[in-house]
Amino acid sequence: KINYIKFIHKCKSGSQHFGMQTLNQSLFSLYKSGKITLESAFYKSTNADELRQMFMKAGVSVPEKVYESAH
After folding, report:
1. Taking the model in full, what pTM does it have?
2. Where residue 9 falls among pLDDT bands split at 50, 70, 90?
3. Residue 20 near residue 46 (C-beta atoms within 8 A)
4. What count of other Cβ atoms lies within 10 Å of the Cβ of residue 27?
5. Residue 46 DSSP label
6. Res 39 pLDDT > 90
7. What whole-number distance in Å separates Cα of residue 26 and Cα of residue 65?
8. Any residues with CB less than 8 A from the CB of 51 and at least 6 apart, and which?
């Protein structure tokens, strides 16, 4: 059985060069450009675990309080 939601997500996350991006990629970009706060990014995210990984890869520490407030 195919999980279409995961399939679509993988397609979108690998298609950034076509101008497509996931919600978390967009939130991360907005945070990096200073347009939103870390708290706002996690509040709007539908996948806090993935977003946290993106921030950690970039060397941005995510306070536990911010991460847990997204759940």
Report:
1. 0.73
2. low
3. no
4. 24
5. S
6. yes
7. 22
8. 24, 27, 28, 41, 42, 45, 70
